[in-house]
Design a protein that fits this description.
It is built from two helices and two strands; from the N terminus they run αββα. It is mostly helical. It has one domain (2-50).
């Protein structure tokens, strides 16, 4: 997983360099099977809010 993360960061930096822009990489949460837990939590929260789930 660390190797994939490094490759993605390098690709983002290369794209920014090629287009004359800047990129900031921020990692939050932990990785599990390629998806950060923070991303999953945001998705669950969005669905719960949309469905008027109690105690949100």
């Amino acid at each position: 997983l660390a190797h994939i993360d490094s490759m993605m960061a390098d690709a983002a930096r290369g794209a920014a360099l090629a287009t004359g822009t800047e990129v900031t990489l921020e990692n939050y949460g932990r990785y599990r099977d390629g998806i950060t837990l923070g991303t999953l939590e945001e998705l669950v929260f969005a669905y719960a809010k949309e469905l008027d789930a109690p105690r949100i």
